[in-house]
Design the sequence.
């Protein structure tokens, strides 16, 4: 368990605790114009989606089922996907 940093030329984000439990914290170093985040469960059901307007996103995940989730970061230039695990 611990912190996961995802860093490349176009995006930077830090996910505190992956696997996570009842709280998911995502920190962005920069926010691109028209950027959005979407989180889906392993069946593709959207459990969270929002435009990214703050550098810090804190989600209460206590009602999410344990399992695999996927974050999709969407910007005008790119789409990126990352895997998360809820215990």
Sequence:
């Amino acid at each position: 368990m611990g912190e996961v940093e995802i860093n490349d030329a176009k995006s930077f984000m830090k996910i505190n605790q992956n696997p996570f439990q009842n709280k998911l914290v995502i920190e962005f170093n920069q926010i691109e114009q028209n950027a959005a985040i979407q989180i889906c469960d392993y069946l593709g059901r959207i459990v969270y989606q929002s435009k990214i307007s703050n550098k810090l996103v804190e989600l209460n995940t206590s009602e999410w089922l344990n399992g695999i989730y996927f974050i999709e970061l969407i910007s005008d230039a790119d789409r990126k996907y990352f895997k998360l695990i809820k215990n």
Q: What stands out?
A: The longest strand covers residues 67-74. Residues 7-11 have pLDDT under 50 and may be disordered. Residues 2 and 17 are 5 Å apart (CA to CA). DSSP finds no helices and eight strands in the chain.
